[in-house]
Fold Small ribosomal subunit protein bS21.
Amino acid sequence: MRGVIVKKGEPVDRALKRLKTKLDTEGILEEMRRRRAFETPTERKQRKLRSASKRNKVRWRYSNAPAGEKTESVD
């Protein structure tokens, strides 16, 4: 069960903000929004391609250039 403990004297707004941040980092809110409406197989494929390209950009950025090296060649 997901949740946050409201500390003594803490405003409810701050506790809600912590809960929302926690759910957002785990991807629960995005999944809930996605399941709210029907998604055709074509839309599902497009969504997965978009997310895969974002993942590959990040992976490419960090896996190609070793630390401290320039990526450009100088002639």
